[in-house]
Write a structure and sequence with these properties.
Arc Repressor Mutant, subunit A, globular, 20% strand, 35% helix, 3 domains, seven-stranded mixed sheet, alpha/beta, Rossmann fold, 13 strands
Amino acid sequence: MKVIGKMGKKAEKIKETKPLNKIEFKSFLTKIANDTKIAEGEKAVEDILRCIYRNQPISTKKIAQYTKLPLPIIAKVRTILERNRILNREKMGAVYSEYGMDLIEKNLKFKLNHDLECPICNGKGIILNEYFEDILKKHKKYAKMRPTVNTSIDQSFATPETATYRAAFMADRGDLEGKRILFVGDDDLTSIPTAMSGLCDEVVVMDIDDRLLNLIGEISEKEGLNIKTIKQDFRNPIKNEYKGIFDTIFTDPPYTLDGLKLFLSRGVEGLGEGGEGVLYLAFSHKPIDEYLELQRIINSMGFVIYELIPGFNIYEGSEIIGNTTFLARLIGKNLKKFEEGEIDLVKLYTGEVKPTIRYYKCLDCGKTYEIDGKNIRIENLTCECGGKKFKMIKRKKIK
């Protein structure tokens, strides 16, 4: 860990605004994509512009959630657009300048100035009835009892609303009533509202984190939920007594392709190799090349993506993934898992695949710390001034 002082300087403002024709504007979008290293390219920049057009004024965080892009990327793009007088920064968020509005309407032909997403369900496709609303009220209390996240194993807690909507979604699809449910990891305590629904024959949670297992056990006992908790390192197969006995699997694995292979393979063990079943997958939005590989992995195991809802899951403090991931309902037949040697067990977590140094600023005194996630994690950091609240201001990949 290093204390490196204060960072950042004000960007120079462009004094003159130059009108851009269609070719120049396209080159401008390409340059933004290249300068900010957006894997999705120019289309992602256009998506950001469209999001702002339809929702202005809008915050950086909301843009990230809308576009499914990392918040640091959104912040960089927004800064560039402001420097070029396309956007104005107002208290309520980003808005187009008169010049910017004219520029995008001429070059991108934007006309639809609002979204057509359902304003009641916000794109989730379901709403909570009174029964699940009562479950949510209870679960909000229990969600506050979760321990500090362990970022070294990619923990990032979903909101209690997300956990309850997951349970309601599974219930709506008929995947809880009379079913045996296995959670392959449960950082988010989704097992709690699932069991509270009273629809399942059995709910089992496997996880490596004793803190979470103990908490789930305590809540289960208090509420009479009969959730079974099992400590499980998913690098090892699950015990034979749990293989092939479940109807529905839920997993929110590390957001790497090898992490995906591993957790889905344990799910297949739970459903039964060669058998069939339903698996719910929460996973981060990826650039198209990684999406294609993700689909190939899923299909090779005998699953099809029957439904996928972007932005279904909302997380607390996970700006790097824009605070959201998708929820997919996978239907499987003739299932097969990845065998030993087909999964790289030293590249399960994002910190192993993409080693990154992050710079955090103390919100009390302004000192900046360099965190590599190994020697010290941000959740355990206390500033020299005694402050415990930090904001990530920069990150750098380790080559």
